[in-house]
Amino acid sequence: MRTVSLLQMDPKVGDLGGNAARIEGLLRQAEASGGSVAVSTELAVCGYPPRDLLLESDFVDRAMAMALDISATMPALIGTPLPPESARQRPGNGVVRVGRSSGSLTGQTEGQVVARKQLLPTYDVFDEARYFEPAHRTGLARSCGGMTFGVTVCEDVWQSAGQTPSSYQQDPVEHIAEWGRQGVDIDATVNLSASPYHSQKFQTRLLVARHVASVLQHPFLLANQVGGNDDLLFDGRSLAVWPSGHAVVAPAWQEGVLTVHLDDPELCTWTASNADDALAHGEPVLCHLSPEEDGSSLDGSIDDLAHAVITGLSDYCRKSGIQSMVLGLSGGIDSAVAACVASAAVGSEHVTGVAMPSRFSSEHSLTDAEHTATALGMTYAVHPIDTMHRAVEGELGGVLDQGHAVAGENVQARLRGLTVMAYANANGSMAVTTGNKSEIAQGYCTLYGDMAGGYAPLADVYKMEVYALAEWFNRQAIAAGRTPPVSASTLEKPPSAELAPNQQDDQTLPPYEVLDEVLRAHIEGGLSAEAMVASGMDEAMVLDVLQRLERNEHKRWQMPPGPRVSSRAFGQGWRRPLASHHLWRSSQRSR
Question: Does domain 3-299 have CATH number 3.60.110.10?
Answer without folding.
Answer: yes
